[in-house]
Each structure stands twice: as structure tokens, then as C-alpha cells.
Amino acid sequence: MTPTALALSLALHAAPAPQAAPRNMMTAAPTIEALNTATRAWHEERIERLQAEDGWLSLVGLYWLEEGEQSVGSAPGNDLDFPEGTPAKLGTFTRQGKTARFQPAPGVALTRNGQPFTGGVLQSDEQGTPDVLKLGSLSFQLILRGDKLGVRVRDSSAPARKQFHGIPTYPASLKWRVEARFEPAQTPRTIQVPNVLGTVEAMKAPGTLVFTVDGKEHQLTPVEDGSGKLFIIFADETNRDATYGAGRFLSADMPQDGRVVLDFNRAYNPPCAFTRFATCPLPPKGNRLALRVEAGEKRHADH
Fold first, then answer.
1. What confidence tier does 72 reach under pLDDT thresholds 50, 70, 90?
2. Is it the case that residue 258 has pLDDT exceeding 60?
3. Which band of pLDDT confidence, cut at 50, 70 and 90, is reported for residue 35?
4. How far is residue 92's CA from residue 105's CA, in Å, rounded to a whole number?
5. 132 near 152, Cβ under 8 Å?
6. HSE-up of residue 99 (Cα within 13 Å, Cβ side)
7. In the 3-class helix/strand/coil scheme, how is the chain assigned residue by residue?
8. Listing from the earlier edge strand, what are the strands of the sheet with 115-117?
9. Confidence band for 303, pLDDT divided at 50, 70 and 90
10. Which among 14, 18, 111, 157 could bridge 137 via Cys, Cβ 3.0 to 4.6 Å?
11. Do residues 153 and 34 lie in contact, with contact meaning Cβ atoms separated by under 8 Å?
């Protein structure tokens, strides 16, 4: 799985999976009461995942490793200045290409995936589940983004997590639960997906979603992230004043009989809307809608 696919998979993990519609119910619209209930339940689960100890609100640091040794800790003079509350001398990272090892400083008792850790090579998220080192409320792991190898740091006691008061949303609306026509790609196709790091990566695009709002036809190109869902990174005109400026995410079930339900009531903010320590993908070319999608999550706080 590519680094961008991993980032998308993590983003999907932060939002509840859409409930698959029965094949014979794909075109049946719910009542507004049923839509309100389903949307509220989905959003409550979304908030629960976001607030989890290892959710996006717990991020407190992201450090990119150079080749060779780098000292880590909260004391002045370390190569990587970890957050307050970290031991003055936590240890040393040694990077070699796409891999890195970590050696704890004397007296620092860490665990790796729940077991005592005295030093060694760490598995990054390149292959899926990364090794997680923990010390009290602090945890950290390696992430690989292109040729950049970084240390992502979480704190279950992070102020952003403790002080979180939810995300404003638009009222659920039947208008924004739309059925799209899926036009499969005739040949294997990839699109370039940019990210906040300034790099791009080719992602598999299985086809195009064509839908109509207020009598006008629009298109979006989803990508596959290995989860068995369609993942859509899109922007629209509400990004200027009401929703997160860099765009939002939406997931949908794979096509049934050439149709896909796009429930924009479940459009949600990317991790970068909550923390500067995330590495979010951005809307690819063609996924900027010339309309206001007044549905789903609005802008969080001052982001």
C-alpha cells in the first residue's frame, strides 16, 4: 500500500464506514426523519473516533528524520525538540534510508506495542500497522510519506483532545443524498493526488461519478485506498467561508448496478482541520465543484 493510500485509510478509520444499501433499495430515498436519525448516529460515532486516545486530536508533534543519528527529548540541545512532558533525554533515532531504529536513553522505560522495549528497528506505516512506542500518556511511531520518514507523536492528555467541543454541521437534507452514475474507466487509470507536504502520488481511480444537483450535472473522481470503498477528496464553494478551506472527504460503497449513493450529509473534515501534524491528501484536479455543498461538517474552530 502506498503512503498516500495509507493516509487515506487512516482518514477513513477516523470516520464511520457508510452502511451498504440493499441492492433493491439503492434508489429508494429515506424519509427526512430516517435521514436525520442515521446522520446523527453516524456523526456521533465519527466524534467518538476522533476523540479516541489515538485519534487525530491527540497529535502533538511531527518530526522529519534526517539520515544518521538524531537525539530526542524536551531539553534544549536535542536534535528533535519533543513536546513538554517528554523526558529531557528520551533517546536517539538512527535513520538509514526508509528505516530507522530507536535507542532509549538510560532510565527511560518504553513499551513497544505493549511490551517492554530496550531498543531496535521500528516498523513504519509503510507496510500497514506501525510499531507504537509508549511512555505514560505519550506515544510515537514512524510514518513514511514518499521519501520522507517522520516521527508522529501523540499525547492522550493533549489539550486539543481534552478541550474538544464537537464540530458544527449543516442540518441533514435529502437534497444532498444524491444518486450518481458510475462510469468505469475503460483502461487502468491513475490520477495525481497532491498532499499538504507539497508532493503528489499516483492513485488508482476506478472511474467517474456523475450526478445532478439543481438541474446541473457535476463529476467527481474517487480513488481506491484498499478498504473496499470509494474515497472522494473534494472541494466546493463553501470552502471559502463555511467549511474547511482545503476541502473535505467523503466515502461511499462500491457501485451497484452502475449506481453509487453520495451522501454529502456525511462529508467530513480531513485530519488537517484539527492538527498541523497530519499529512492530508488534497482534492485532485477535477474534484473542485462549482457549487456550494451545504451539507456535512462545517469548519472546526478557527481552521
1. very high
2. yes
3. very high
4. 7
5. no
6. 7
7. CCHHHHHHHHHHHCCCCCCCCCHHHCCCCCCHHHHHHHHHHHHHHHHHHHCCCCCHHHEEEEEECCCEEEEEECCCCCCEECCCCCCCCCEEEEEECCEEEEEECCCCCEEECCEEECCEEECCHHHCCCCCEEECCEEEEEEEECCEEEEEEEECCCHHHHCCCCCCECCCCHHHEEEEEEEECCCCCEEEEEECCCCEEEEECCEEEEEEECCEEEEECCEECCCCCEEEEEECHHHHCCCCCCCEEEEECCCECCEEEEEHHHCECCHHHCCCCCCCECCCCCCECCCCCCCCECCCCCC
8. 59-64, 148-155, 138-145, 133-135, 110-112, 115-117
9. low
10. 157
11. no
Which triple of cell numbers denotes residue 281?
Answer: 491528501
CA distance 218 to 161: 37
**Rounded to 5°, angle at Cα 46 from 1 and 248:** 65
Q: Half-sphere exposure of 243 toward its Cβ, with a 13 Å CA cutoff? A: 26
Burial of 58 (0-12, 13-18, 19+ CB in 10 A): buried
The C-alpha atoms of residue 115 and residue 76 are separated, in whole angstroms, by 30
